[in-house]
Amino acid sequence: IVLTFALLAVTFVIGVSMQQAGTGLGQITSFVGLLVIAFVWYGAYLLISMQNIEYEYILTNSELDIDKIMSKKGRKHIISLDFKDVTVCADTEDSEHNSDYINIKADKVFNAVGDDSRGSIYFADCIGEQGERTRVLFQPTSKMITSAKRYNPRKIFVVED
Protein backbone atom coordinates (compact mmCIF):
# COMPACT_ATOMS: atom_id res chain seq x y z
CA ILE A 1 0.00 0.00 0.00
CA VAL A 2 2.86 2.36 0.86
CA LEU A 3 4.55 1.48 -2.44
CA THR A 4 1.30 2.23 -4.29
CA PHE A 5 1.03 5.68 -2.74
CA ALA A 6 4.71 6.37 -3.47
CA LEU A 7 4.29 5.35 -7.11
CA LEU A 8 1.12 7.44 -7.40
CA ALA A 9 2.95 10.48 -6.01
CA VAL A 10 5.90 10.01 -8.37
CA THR A 11 3.56 9.51 -11.34
CA PHE A 12 1.57 12.62 -10.40
CA VAL A 13 4.69 14.78 -10.01
CA ILE A 14 6.20 13.61 -13.30
CA GLY A 15 2.86 13.96 -15.13
CA VAL A 16 2.28 17.51 -13.84
CA SER A 17 5.83 18.59 -14.66
CA MET A 18 5.50 17.20 -18.19
CA GLN A 19 2.21 19.02 -18.74
CA GLN A 20 3.70 22.28 -17.47
CA ALA A 21 6.66 21.83 -19.81
CA GLY A 22 4.20 21.79 -22.68
CA THR A 23 4.82 18.23 -23.83
CA GLY A 24 1.94 15.88 -24.50
CA LEU A 25 3.55 13.13 -22.45
CA GLY A 26 1.72 13.95 -19.21
CA GLN A 27 -1.20 11.61 -19.88
CA ILE A 28 1.08 8.85 -21.17
CA THR A 29 3.20 9.12 -18.02
CA SER A 30 0.09 8.81 -15.86
CA PHE A 31 -1.02 5.73 -17.81
CA VAL A 32 2.42 4.11 -17.52
CA GLY A 33 2.47 4.88 -13.78
CA LEU A 34 -0.90 3.20 -13.28
CA LEU A 35 0.31 0.24 -15.33
CA VAL A 36 3.40 -0.09 -13.11
CA ILE A 37 1.16 0.01 -10.02
CA ALA A 38 -1.00 -2.77 -11.49
CA PHE A 39 2.10 -4.91 -12.10
CA VAL A 40 3.29 -4.29 -8.53
CA TRP A 41 -0.05 -5.48 -7.15
CA TYR A 42 0.00 -8.53 -9.43
CA GLY A 43 3.54 -9.36 -8.27
CA ALA A 44 2.46 -9.01 -4.64
CA TYR A 45 -0.46 -11.36 -5.30
CA LEU A 46 1.88 -13.95 -6.86
CA LEU A 47 4.35 -13.63 -4.00
CA ILE A 48 1.67 -14.13 -1.36
CA SER A 49 0.00 -17.02 -3.17
CA MET A 50 3.33 -18.86 -3.60
CA GLN A 51 3.61 -19.12 0.20
CA ASN A 52 1.05 -21.97 0.19
CA ILE A 53 3.35 -24.97 -0.34
CA GLU A 54 2.48 -28.66 0.01
CA TYR A 55 4.52 -31.77 -0.67
CA GLU A 56 3.24 -34.94 -2.28
CA TYR A 57 4.97 -38.27 -1.71
CA ILE A 58 4.42 -41.06 -4.22
CA LEU A 59 5.75 -44.47 -3.20
CA THR A 60 5.88 -47.05 -6.00
CA ASN A 61 7.52 -50.27 -4.84
CA SER A 62 10.86 -49.01 -3.48
CA GLU A 63 10.87 -45.70 -5.40
CA LEU A 64 9.80 -42.50 -3.62
CA ASP A 65 8.99 -39.46 -5.75
CA ILE A 66 8.55 -36.12 -4.01
CA ASP A 67 6.73 -33.24 -5.70
CA LYS A 68 6.27 -29.68 -4.48
CA ILE A 69 2.80 -28.20 -5.04
CA MET A 70 2.60 -24.41 -4.91
CA SER A 71 -0.78 -22.74 -4.35
CA LYS A 72 -2.56 -25.92 -5.46
CA LYS A 73 -1.68 -24.97 -9.04
CA GLY A 74 1.97 -25.43 -9.94
CA ARG A 75 3.77 -28.74 -9.47
CA LYS A 76 7.53 -29.20 -9.42
CA HIS A 77 9.37 -32.52 -9.12
CA ILE A 78 11.89 -32.31 -6.28
CA ILE A 79 13.65 -35.68 -6.10
CA SER A 80 13.30 -39.40 -6.71
CA LEU A 81 14.73 -41.72 -4.10
CA ASP A 82 15.13 -45.50 -4.21
CA PHE A 83 14.89 -47.04 -0.75
CA LYS A 84 17.08 -49.93 -1.92
CA ASP A 85 20.00 -47.46 -2.17
CA VAL A 86 19.42 -45.68 1.16
CA THR A 87 22.30 -45.83 3.65
CA VAL A 88 20.08 -44.88 6.60
CA CYS A 89 16.46 -43.80 7.03
CA ALA A 90 15.10 -43.00 10.48
CA ASP A 91 13.09 -40.52 12.50
CA THR A 92 15.04 -37.36 13.33
CA GLU A 93 13.96 -37.76 16.97
CA ASP A 94 14.99 -41.45 17.18
CA SER A 95 17.59 -41.55 19.96
CA GLU A 96 19.24 -44.68 18.56
CA HIS A 97 19.90 -43.17 15.10
CA ASN A 98 19.95 -39.48 15.95
CA SER A 99 23.77 -39.47 15.78
CA ASP A 100 23.57 -40.31 12.05
CA TYR A 101 21.31 -37.30 11.54
CA ILE A 102 23.40 -34.88 13.60
CA ASN A 103 26.98 -36.00 12.96
CA ILE A 104 26.96 -37.00 9.30
CA LYS A 105 26.83 -33.94 7.05
CA ALA A 106 25.19 -34.13 3.64
CA ASP A 107 26.33 -32.41 0.46
CA LYS A 108 22.73 -31.80 -0.70
CA VAL A 109 19.69 -31.50 1.56
CA PHE A 110 16.12 -31.58 0.25
CA ASN A 111 13.61 -30.38 2.83
CA ALA A 112 10.18 -31.74 1.88
CA VAL A 113 8.50 -31.13 5.22
CA GLY A 114 5.23 -29.27 4.89
CA ASP A 115 4.05 -28.79 8.48
CA ASP A 116 6.17 -29.80 11.48
CA SER A 117 3.09 -30.51 13.59
CA ARG A 118 1.63 -33.13 11.23
CA GLY A 119 3.81 -36.01 12.34
CA SER A 120 7.27 -37.46 12.61
CA ILE A 121 10.01 -36.09 10.39
CA TYR A 122 12.21 -38.74 8.82
CA PHE A 123 15.54 -38.35 7.10
CA ALA A 124 16.88 -40.59 4.34
CA ASP A 125 20.54 -40.51 3.34
CA CYS A 126 21.87 -41.95 0.10
CA ILE A 127 25.04 -41.69 -1.95
CA GLY A 128 24.65 -40.21 -5.45
CA GLU A 129 26.36 -41.22 -8.67
CA GLN A 130 29.21 -38.72 -8.19
CA GLY A 131 29.73 -39.82 -4.58
CA GLU A 132 27.90 -36.90 -2.96
CA ARG A 133 25.76 -37.60 0.08
CA THR A 134 22.13 -36.56 -0.37
CA ARG A 135 19.70 -36.16 2.52
CA VAL A 136 15.94 -35.94 2.18
CA LEU A 137 13.75 -34.73 5.05
CA PHE A 138 10.13 -35.84 4.71
CA GLN A 139 7.02 -36.83 6.68
CA PRO A 140 5.89 -40.31 5.62
CA THR A 141 2.87 -42.07 6.99
CA SER A 142 3.53 -45.14 9.10
CA LYS A 143 2.16 -47.31 6.31
CA MET A 144 4.54 -45.73 3.78
CA ILE A 145 7.65 -46.20 5.90
CA THR A 146 6.65 -49.78 6.76
CA SER A 147 6.22 -50.55 3.06
CA ALA A 148 9.63 -49.06 2.27
CA LYS A 149 11.22 -51.13 5.05
CA ARG A 150 10.48 -54.31 3.10
CA TYR A 151 13.03 -53.27 0.45
CA ASN A 152 15.89 -52.38 2.81
CA PRO A 153 15.12 -53.71 6.32
CA ARG A 154 18.63 -53.18 7.73
CA LYS A 155 18.82 -49.50 6.82
CA ILE A 156 15.25 -48.26 7.40
CA PHE A 157 14.19 -47.83 11.00
CA VAL A 158 10.55 -47.39 11.95
CA VAL A 159 9.58 -45.72 15.21
CA GLU A 160 6.96 -47.80 16.96
CA ASP A 161 4.06 -45.81 18.43
Order of helices and strands: HHEEEEHEEEH
How are the strands ordered across the major sheet?
A: 4-6-7-5
- Can you tell me the residue ranges where pLDDT is under 50 for at least 5 consecutive residues? none
Count of β-strands: 7
How does the major sheet shape up? 4 strands, mixed
Structural class: alpha+beta
Strand percentage: 25-35%
Task: Summarize the amount of helix as a percent range.
Answer: 25-40%
Radius of gyration: 26 Å
User: What count of helical segments does DSSP give?
Assistant: 4
Mean of pLDDT: 84
Overall morphology: rod-shaped
* Cα separation of the termini: 50 Å
Descriptive labels:
161 residues, 4-stranded mixed β-sheet, 35% helix, single chain, 7 strands
Helix and strand layout, with pairings?
Elements: H1 2-20, H2 26-49, E1 53-60, E2 63-70, E3 74-82, E4 86-91, H3 98-103, E5 108-112, E6 122-127, E7 133-138, H4 142-149
Parallel strand pairs: 5-7
Antiparallel strand pairs: 1-2, 2-3, 4-6, 6-7
Helix pairs in contact: 1-2
Explain the overall architecture.
The structure is a single chain. 35% of the residues lie in helices and 30% in strands. The chain has 4 helices and 7 strands. The protein has helices at residues 2-20, 26-49, 98-103, 142-149; strands spanning 53-60, 63-70, 74-82, 86-91, 108-112, 122-127, 133-138. The strands form 2 sheets. The protein has a 4-stranded mixed β-sheet. A hairpin with a 3-residue loop joins strand 2 and strand 3 (74-82). Helix 1 runs antiparallel to helix 2 (26-49).
